[in-house]
């Protein structure tokens, strides 16, 4: 009996884990955390419930892995833009432009999983909602640090409210995500991005767009 159980535990998986994980990303992205059931996941991923638990753990553990995969594959454009561009304004302008493209990309769910996956959750899912909220706030803090660096270097006026400006950018990005889920196309989001940048503080060194 023990030998039989050992052979069963040692059997190779009959599915591709990376493909199954990608399907889970899309399921949570489309439906959100709480609305996505284990039966939804097994159907979308093409695996049985025992296989899901064996490969990924419970729903929460799978979602944590989904969030990490989403960040690697789809959601890292904001951090890259802020890190790679020479000024905060250029980083934010690039991030908003890329958000317009990413949030409306054909063939995949619209909007941002980190923004929308836990908008409506029960107290039982409070930890998930808190985790995603912290990720959004982390992005805002990253933008704020870049803005403060530009204030210190003279790229932005000394009186610029770095916190308010960073939260403004966060509000625009979150709004673009929701607009895309409501059907706004890329051109519409690009127009929103351009209008948002008109509010950016300027100096003689950093002309307005």
UniProtKB/TrEMBL annotation:
Keywords: DNA-binding, Transcription, Transcription regulation. Residues 37-56 bind DNA. Pfam families: TetR_C_13 (PF16925), TetR_N (PF00440). This is TetR/AcrR family transcriptional regulator. Coiled coil: none annotated. PANTHER family: HTH-TYPE TRANSCRIPTIONAL REGULATOR YJDC (PTHR47506:SF1), TRANSCRIPTIONAL REGULATORY PROTEIN (PTHR47506). PROSITE patterns: HTH_TETR_1 (PS01081), HTH_TETR_2 (PS50977). Gene3D superfamilies: Homeodomain-like, Tetracycline Repressor, domain 2. The keyword Nucleotide-binding does not apply. Residues 14-74 form the HTH tetR-type domain.
């Amino acid at each position: 009996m023990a030998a039989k159980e050992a052979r069963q535990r040692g059997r190779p998986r009959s599915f591709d884990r990376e493909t199954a994980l990608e399907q889970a990303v899309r399921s949570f992205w489309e439906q959100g955390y709480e609305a996505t059931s284990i039966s939804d996941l097994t159907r979308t991923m093409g695996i049985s419930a025992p296989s899901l638990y064996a490969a990924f753990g419970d729903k929460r553990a799978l979602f944590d892995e989904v969030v990490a995969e989403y960040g690697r594959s789809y959601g890292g454009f904001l951090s890259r833009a802020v890190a790679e561009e020479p000024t905060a304004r250029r980083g934010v302008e690039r991030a908003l432009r890329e958000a317009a493209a990413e949030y409306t990309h054909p063939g995949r769910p619209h909007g941002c999983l980190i923004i929308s996956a836990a908008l409506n959750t029960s107290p039982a899912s409070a930890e998930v909602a808190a985790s995603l909220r912290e990720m959004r706030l982390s992005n805002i803090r990253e933008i704020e640090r870049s803005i403060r660096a530009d204030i210190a270097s003279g790229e932005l006026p000394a009186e610029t409210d770095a916190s308010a400006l960073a939260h403004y950018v966060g509000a625009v990005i979150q709004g673009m995500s929701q607009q895309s889920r409501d059907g706004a196309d890329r051109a519409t989001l690009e127009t929103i991005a351009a209008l948002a940048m008109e509010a950016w503080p300027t100096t003689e060194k950093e002309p307005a767009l």
